[in-house]
Amino acid sequence: MPELPEVEAARSLIEERALGRRIAEVDDADTYVCRPHAPGEIAGALVGATLTSAHRQGKTMWLATDRGPVLGLHLGMAGKIVIGDAEAGEPKPDGPVLQPQWDRFTVHFADGGTLILRDKRRLGRAVLDPVIDHLGPDAAEVTRGAFRERVGHGIAPLKARIMDQSVIAGVGNLLADEALWQARLSPVRPAGELDEEELDRLRNQIRATTRSAIRKGGVHTGEVIEHRRRDGVCPRCGAGMARATVGGRTTYWCPVEQT
Ligand SMILES: [Zn+2]
Questions:
Q1: What's the predicted TM-score (pTM) here?
Q2: Ligand 1 center to residue 222 CA distance, Å?
Q3: Using CA atoms, how far apart are residues 127 and 5, in angstroms rounded to an integer?
Q4: What residues pack around ion ligand 1 (CB closer than 5 A)?
Q5: Of 41, 104, 180, 193, whose CB has the highest number of CB atoms within 10 Å?
Q6: What is the pLDDT of residues 149-197, one digit of tens each?
Q7: For residue range 152-161, what is the model confidence (pLDDT) as tens digits?
Q8: What's the 109 CA to ligand 1 centre distance in angstroms?
Q9: Do the Cβ atoms of 234 and 241 come closer than 8 Å?
């Protein structure tokens, strides 16, 4: 599932390859992915415009245009962004990457290229002028003071607290397990019990884990991820990994070191 690092990779791809290209046509016919818009509504706002910048906060991404309307894109559980090159032309019908039945939303550029939201599970979104007020500060950018204040209170388990997108934005299930393991903090501890040193340590690990995953190509590159299984052992101390459902998500941690 795309987490913050995967969304950042998509944003960066758009920034490198899609900005400055004029939009000639938009396929917004999927009324589920494009809800609440009617077919043609997103197209009407974007055709003729040029993408000028690509932004991200947590797992939400939005693209500004020179005409005002903003295009919000969310990758959902399985979505990815594919940019078709003008030079390469349209993807070949028999090519390995063409999966048109999974193309939920497509921007066609005047130069012949495309920007596609490809999503097997159809849980991604394309929306005009997305509302982002409900999102907390980005997990990779949040300041020490804001992190202490937003994360360090309440009785919710620590993992649920850091995955609450209104508290900080961008931490998903795997990123949470990796950062908590790196910080040696238990996912089930009430968030309000942490002292400032522990909160600072967790913030540092969330930032480090996120940056490492962006650099290495995804959350799956974390050190503890492959040990998240029933017979998994902690790669640091060799203890059997503990497993429980925390905040509605399957959670693995080292019961010896994560206190
Ligand atoms: Zn351990």
A1: 0.85
A2: 15
A3: 21
A4: 234, 236-237, 239, 254, 256-257
A5: 180
A6: 999 999 999 999 999 999 999 999 999 999 999 999 999 999 999 999 9
A7: 999 999 999 9
A8: 51
A9: yes
